[in-house]
Fold these 2 entries.
Entry 1:
Amino acid sequence: MRSNTMNSEEILNLLKKVGEGKLSPKAAVGRLRHLPFEDIGFAKVDHHRALRQGYAEVIFGKGKTPAQVAGIVHAMLRQRESRQNILVTRADAKMYATVKRVNRSAKFHPGSGVITIERSKEITGKGTILVVSAGTSDIPVAEEAVLTARMMGNQVEPLYDVGVAGIHRLLEHRSRLTEARVIICIAGMEGALPSVVGGLVGVPVIAVPTSTGYGASFGGVAALLGMLNSCASNVTVVNIDNGFGAACVASCINRL
Amino acid sequence: MRSNTMNSEEILNLLKKVGEGKLSPKAAVGRLRHLPFEDIGFAKVDHHRALRQGYAEVIFGKGKTPAQVAGIVHAMLRQRESRQNILVTRADAKMYATVKRVNRSAKFHPGSGVITIERSKEITGKGTILVVSAGTSDIPVAEEAVLTARMMGNQVEPLYDVGVAGIHRLLEHRSRLTEARVIICIAGMEGALPSVVGGLVGVPVIAVPTSTGYGASFGGVAALLGMLNSCASNVTVVNIDNGFGAACVASCINRL
Amino acid sequence: MRSNTMNSEEILNLLKKVGEGKLSPKAAVGRLRHLPFEDIGFAKVDHHRALRQGYAEVIFGKGKTPAQVAGIVHAMLRQRESRQNILVTRADAKMYATVKRVNRSAKFHPGSGVITIERSKEITGKGTILVVSAGTSDIPVAEEAVLTARMMGNQVEPLYDVGVAGIHRLLEHRSRLTEARVIICIAGMEGALPSVVGGLVGVPVIAVPTSTGYGASFGGVAALLGMLNSCASNVTVVNIDNGFGAACVASCINRL
Amino acid sequence: MRSNTMNSEEILNLLKKVGEGKLSPKAAVGRLRHLPFEDIGFAKVDHHRALRQGYAEVIFGKGKTPAQVAGIVHAMLRQRESRQNILVTRADAKMYATVKRVNRSAKFHPGSGVITIERSKEITGKGTILVVSAGTSDIPVAEEAVLTARMMGNQVEPLYDVGVAGIHRLLEHRSRLTEARVIICIAGMEGALPSVVGGLVGVPVIAVPTSTGYGASFGGVAALLGMLNSCASNVTVVNIDNGFGAACVASCINRL
Amino acid sequence: MRSNTMNSEEILNLLKKVGEGKLSPKAAVGRLRHLPFEDIGFAKVDHHRALRQGYAEVIFGKGKTPAQVAGIVHAMLRQRESRQNILVTRADAKMYATVKRVNRSAKFHPGSGVITIERSKEITGKGTILVVSAGTSDIPVAEEAVLTARMMGNQVEPLYDVGVAGIHRLLEHRSRLTEARVIICIAGMEGALPSVVGGLVGVPVIAVPTSTGYGASFGGVAALLGMLNSCASNVTVVNIDNGFGAACVASCINRL
Amino acid sequence: MRSNTMNSEEILNLLKKVGEGKLSPKAAVGRLRHLPFEDIGFAKVDHHRALRQGYAEVIFGKGKTPAQVAGIVHAMLRQRESRQNILVTRADAKMYATVKRVNRSAKFHPGSGVITIERSKEITGKGTILVVSAGTSDIPVAEEAVLTARMMGNQVEPLYDVGVAGIHRLLEHRSRLTEARVIICIAGMEGALPSVVGGLVGVPVIAVPTSTGYGASFGGVAALLGMLNSCASNVTVVNIDNGFGAACVASCINRL
Amino acid sequence: MRSNTMNSEEILNLLKKVGEGKLSPKAAVGRLRHLPFEDIGFAKVDHHRALRQGYAEVIFGKGKTPAQVAGIVHAMLRQRESRQNILVTRADAKMYATVKRVNRSAKFHPGSGVITIERSKEITGKGTILVVSAGTSDIPVAEEAVLTARMMGNQVEPLYDVGVAGIHRLLEHRSRLTEARVIICIAGMEGALPSVVGGLVGVPVIAVPTSTGYGASFGGVAALLGMLNSCASNVTVVNIDNGFGAACVASCINRL
Amino acid sequence: MRSNTMNSEEILNLLKKVGEGKLSPKAAVGRLRHLPFEDIGFAKVDHHRALRQGYAEVIFGKGKTPAQVAGIVHAMLRQRESRQNILVTRADAKMYATVKRVNRSAKFHPGSGVITIERSKEITGKGTILVVSAGTSDIPVAEEAVLTARMMGNQVEPLYDVGVAGIHRLLEHRSRLTEARVIICIAGMEGALPSVVGGLVGVPVIAVPTSTGYGASFGGVAALLGMLNSCASNVTVVNIDNGFGAACVASCINRL
């Protein structure tokens, strides 16, 4: 792709010719029509959008080599004026070792397979994102959500191990539920937690099914279907094990 | 099948011949070996089992003509010594009209499509069966369970409209939950109710998924999967919309 | 369920006895422990929550008789102090005729099967909810979303017929996309619209798969899976054809 | 969670103030309303439930490190007054080695992956739980059920290798079937065994589909569907390979 | 397609020219190579195959108009030299009325939707085909199998209502099972019957799943999977409700 | 959308101002950047594409009222300069009656539910599209394909009833297969036809699964999966029953 | 199980007592009724069935240890009077090494994972079983079928690599197809081969889907569905990859 | 299979006898009728087809041993007169090492697992095949498509990383899209790319779903369904991850 500046220059040159009478306005219209639209600043707008969302720079580690991951991290770090946090999801220890050599402040969270490089501690989200999870085996996904939301500038609080079969454990923390601005609700097996949580609060609940379980959990399908059929009307759903995506949406809502 | 009495007679005749020396014991063994086993009383044992279970006589109406249903009811009623209640499930108004002509005390329950002929009010179950349901659209299945369990001689109590998205409605009735000896728990959509109920009590919970819902409820599959993956360990599951089956099992447990 | 006032009175009486020295504090603790918790005001808190969410009163029409629907509407209208709008979803012309007799200002929207009784025009949502849909057959679901969001006090704008196979139709309206505070994105078939829309904006996108299509659309499953796998990270998903649920969540976000 | 005693004290202090006239009864009601309900004894009730069910302490090993498993076992053993048996399911040899160091009496059952620490041999179940299985490859699941039911204080008897394609093997043991109080019936492939067993007895049959088989067994789905559609009305179903859950329910029934 | 005779004539003419020396053998090879192969008798071979199989002439009624069905029947009847029976499957009363006008001896079997015109009573199958079915709702499929097998020249015997939940009913008829040369075994719900029957006999068992049932029977899928996973090794399976196909295969085996 | 001419005028005006010195080239660049790109001729390009593809104007009838369909047809007919054929798919007799009033030359094809208005007989496709189908119940889908391809200016030939269980019927027509430039291959049930056809020719084969069949055909899924797994490497697949789509692609290929 | 002789003796003793007048015939009937039916010779009948079927002794290796497999083989070999062949399916090299030590004539077929010990070369099947397979990756399943059918005393012929995309390869061998008495037809991917083969012959075709393929073959489901929907009426189906089962049925047919 | 020449000779001999008067023409017709049709040149026609398609020689590596792959390559190379390129798909490094020994010019492409031996650089396709892919993890499949299409004599251009969530990246390259003669469009996750691309061009688009993704992508099923339901009418679909098949079809189209 040619750079954005180049395109502006091209258009400028075209218009200069019109200004100088070297090209008729009508002929110029004809030429402009054949320029790809992005030449008139599309990419720039897109760049603005990235800034506006305050998204951290994110690398999906799975399927990349450690060298590739480290290379992308290196490129990101060179953009010195940017102070955005860097996040690698679905990473492993080998990737971390390589990234660590690029940047000493990189941290690895083995439970969730997340690498973080924190360059800014600024909180830009307006309220607290509460990350609620049902069982201990849901914690890796919960941790991915917590770290992602934090790297994106949010105040995040975890509330773990509050499954619906021991409903009092959840109800005990009702004040924390009602104080959150957005809730991420993570559960495997029957995926019932978001319905109960959704019924207790008035804020949006983003449900994340996990692949926890065996047999008829079908790798998270049971939880996914349960959440899609939630009888609480403030619940929406993301993909199985997608703690990252839930945190993106929650962060996006928390900036409104 | 020849009647049981006949078979006993045949064997009796055989043994009489042995007793009279007309047949050697060895030859008799040979003959007995070739008699179908039910000739030596199997059906009777089976009959005993039916009595022991206290099952009402049940007719599955769906797929039968009104005349067929009425005919079976008529045959049952002729066995005067039996005082078992008669139950027709998945029936309709036409079937009822025909059955009504056979027996004036027949009652139709249009919500659940159940016809009942109550010939005995004896309570043979040891405790109360509580039938808990989540939404109003689950009530037909719940009613099938209630009527079936009652016809089978149980004290039954309904507890409707206590879905998990308004958890306080359920918790309000905790004493009724803890007083039941067996609980039937009926829910569509995400099917989360049995997990919550199962966590609140120490008795067996029989979960019935319903075909309530639309889209990704897949005609009850979402609820079914949710229930099979219940994180409460006292929950078992029957087929979608199978209020009848749940009541059979509950009744069976309640007699232990 | 006993009324909330009664419960408060009971507790008050209990405490009065303590105040009068007729009951020791220790004995009172014992008694309180056995009172169901809702007796100490839970329902009221819940009532507060309803007010706080600004949810309209909603009746799910499907599976109810016209008389039942009209009865519930009548009960709602009697609560004169409430000025909340009333919404019946999945209704039909017969239900409407009956509701119309109860309240002359009721309106029927046959495309989406929604009945509305508007009692308040107050806008309580902070920004605009844009309802984007792909094909003409998605419009009923879109209309359900539009009407629900409006009845819940939001500024709502529809943007229909902007499917991804004619991407320029969507891009043409980019300014409307970027001006929205929340976007509901409705599509059947391959369900690709939310990914494209999500990539163009920085606000939350609530994706609604529709049962539009035939063959391998499997009644909306293809669109549902597409949306759950969206490569845009600001997309969450609700159940197939659930325009109502999407509007609830959008409204809930729009009040933050 | 703050301890239960603390909460009782708080309430006691509140009531003392009322008794001393330092707080009006009306003001006390207001304060009580804002206390989380579990503060008034909920957890205690829950604790009672645990005792009442006589459940062994159970650890789900899968997904935990050997150190975590051993740590939990260690904590359980410290509660010296408790004499409950300890059970680790889905464990492996490494976990066992670590647990063995914590408690010398721990035993490992490699077929089913169960670790048991037997601290009580008391039989609290009223009758015999019979664990029936179809093929040799179903035995690991059967063993999980047998061990779980034993650890929970039940008389348990195994009856293995009685698949329906050799129906006489099953019929031969009819007396054992009819003597059981609860039957757990474990089968893979077509999952037909519970229907046949259910038809031979009058007690509840808990069916466990196993992931035995290949091809169109779909990891146990064929057996699961078969069992859910059982034509015997005293059959309920738990998740695929869930020998543990079946034993919990059976134990729960056997205490009634 | 040109008629078979014509093609033979063409080849004959070609060969005559060779015989007359008007065409060299080599040139004739070249020409033959370009003749479509069916021109040298393929259709005739195929015709032989039809005769050899002794298949009745069969019309699949579903999706055809009564006039079309009657037209095909009429054309078949004109081939007077043929004495093959005529069978219309998945027919209805309207089709029958029209066929009846074409041939007075046509009979309609409303349970299975089969029309038969019997032109030959010759028995060409070597043994008896036993058609075993589980429940009363499986009888339509069983009847389709019985009629098809009879029309194809087999001695057929029905054995209905011998489901596995009352195993003694089946065992009672063991002699009939062992006397059959081929068994067709029809069952819905859990589809367990073929496994039990297969284990009792040494002949091939053709299993037909039926769409009987509700909920998790998924229109016969549960039974289909059960049968495909049968633990009896003499069981093969045909499509759901395919009584016709089972009879074709059984007939085909019975002629060996 | 504003018309294309308008947009060109706007740009022309802008450029005229530059030419007149009223606006600096640099300022003009800025303004252009904010114009939606379609304003510089996007729609026109798109229009060109439509012409280039030679697509007929197509209306998807399903879900539209007869009045709506007729209205769209009427609008199309007013564009007198266009001579494109008009096609309504998934239409019914009522729609046809209304369209007939708008245009007397409209024809209805009840088998496939297609309405055609032929305004041009020009053949623009380079070769013949052969539409091969397996069974008589596949003919409606085949007819939709034939009519669509014809309306789009192709020479089309049908070849029906050549299913793989009578392979000689297909082989007989091998010359027709090899003479086609593109083949559309339509089959239900096991969907095996495209593999056989694909192996006999060197041209692209577009496979269309149909919803023909019952039981385990799952509404065309069996055929769809069969075709996706075709062992012939010149086969691609479209949606179940999508004769229209297959013809579009075939037409698109036939113009290359 | 007590031995059959014992049971006969018991009955003999009973009858002797009747003969000796020590027991009344009526009392004897009562006692007989309580004897399990298998005591009167059931097992013997079953034993006869095994002999009659001529099945080889078969061990399903998967899930057993090498020692277990060798142990069972050893036990089989001790029954010297039996000359039945021994077959281990789904075995591996380790199992073979252990079995080899037990019996030097054991042979391992690594492609199919079958171990054979041939003790009899007697051909008891009446005709030839032809094993037809589509692709090279289907050969392991084909080999399992070939070896099983041979060990069971059949003349078996393989015909490999005759997939439908090169139909001439299959047609070339038409004489071999028509000479077979039973055909086993093995194919993965679209599973079209049995339909084509079934159409060419008049004998039963047993179709075996294989898990060959990737993506939408879903581990053999595509082939399975294709075969269940076969348009040839002499095709039945066994489970995915079940070459063993297909050979059992074919052998069973070939003995008729 | 006997060679084609042999068969011709046989026929020649037959015809010579006719020419010599040793055999009557009529008798010769009879004999010819029983010759398998392929003996008169079928294979030759087939051979012509292979040449006509210009397909490279392709070996599917998966499931073959390195020695087998090398052996086939060796055999191909011996046919010196052929200059067709050789392609091994789904190969690994071990296979490559062995092939390399057979032919030094063999190249391995580890990303896609493809081995190529280029013997001809002739471009026989008429235009450019553009291979468009969405994400970096789709590149292995894209590379398989690129290499296959190149080996088959096409001008191929890759266009990677243009997913729909950043629609401008795709639009930027619109000229490349419109210049292609055939487009292969590869995407995982929601599989939306082909719809957008299809809407932008007038040429055929062959969509390849990839198994990229996790959770509800179900190994590529989400993308597959999305593509089958594409709202762009110039899109057809091949199996999941089937870059090879897509290239075959594209090549086949590009030669038209």
Entry 2:
Amino acid sequence: MQLYPLKLVTVVGESVIMEDIAEEGIKLGATGYSMSEVIGHGSRSARNVGEAGGAKTLKIEFVVPSDVAVEILTHVSHEYFEHYAIIAWLSDVSVMRGEQYTRKSGG
Amino acid sequence: MQLYPLKLVTVVGESVIMEDIAEEGIKLGATGYSMSEVIGHGSRSARNVGEAGGAKTLKIEFVVPSDVAVEILTHVSHEYFEHYAIIAWLSDVSVMRGEQYTRKSGG
Amino acid sequence: MQLYPLKLVTVVGESVIMEDIAEEGIKLGATGYSMSEVIGHGSRSARNVGEAGGAKTLKIEFVVPSDVAVEILTHVSHEYFEHYAIIAWLSDVSVMRGEQYTRKSGG
């Protein structure tokens, strides 16, 4: 079985910004994402993720090529880390039919 | 602490096929799974995952030995990739008490 | 882009113990966690995770330094593996601004 190395980018943060991040991920080259509701608790600078009575917290996952992963992580870091309770991480994954995770140019 | 290397297989797709995939994963050697509801968005060939007003999307995770992971991924790919909006990926994980993830023969 | 290697600890188990595990993870050094509801099915010794009509199953994720990951996994294993339906695994992740995942002494 042929497996293709890709990256899984996971972003957890306040729901108010997560729809934007999902769309921005697509603009940066992701071909899709999955999003789910979580209860978050954190000690991030700005405020707690999902602190008592707080806003809904969402988790987004993108499976993308390495360069797109870095672009998404850099974008999220620059745009949101300072003012929002958000965390993001990257991990290695393998998929079958890897070409489906790369957007065709002109597509 | 002794850690055992295993594989995490994640499958995200339309709920109509996910119960079957869960059962098929068990038949192929997984000793368990966890399933959760997600909002999916993708550009897969057949149709979008969870497209506007579309069906519920589910995510299933199996923690399994490497050979079982390959069997599940191959099965999912062969049976579902062509006709359903589904993505699947593999990643490396470590567990304690790894023997509990391997089915005993005759069990 | 500077990325820092950390560990993702994932624990899936009966909701009755998951709030405790979340708090214990924080005491052991995690700076946060995210928690979500899943449907679990397993063949663990004690009982099935989320077996028919059974209790709610929760999944907790901690992103932590390696030593904290080992402490959480060891704690969960020692305290809960014998009597509860619970599984836990570890994987490698990378984050930006890794210092935010390490608790300051005296904090």
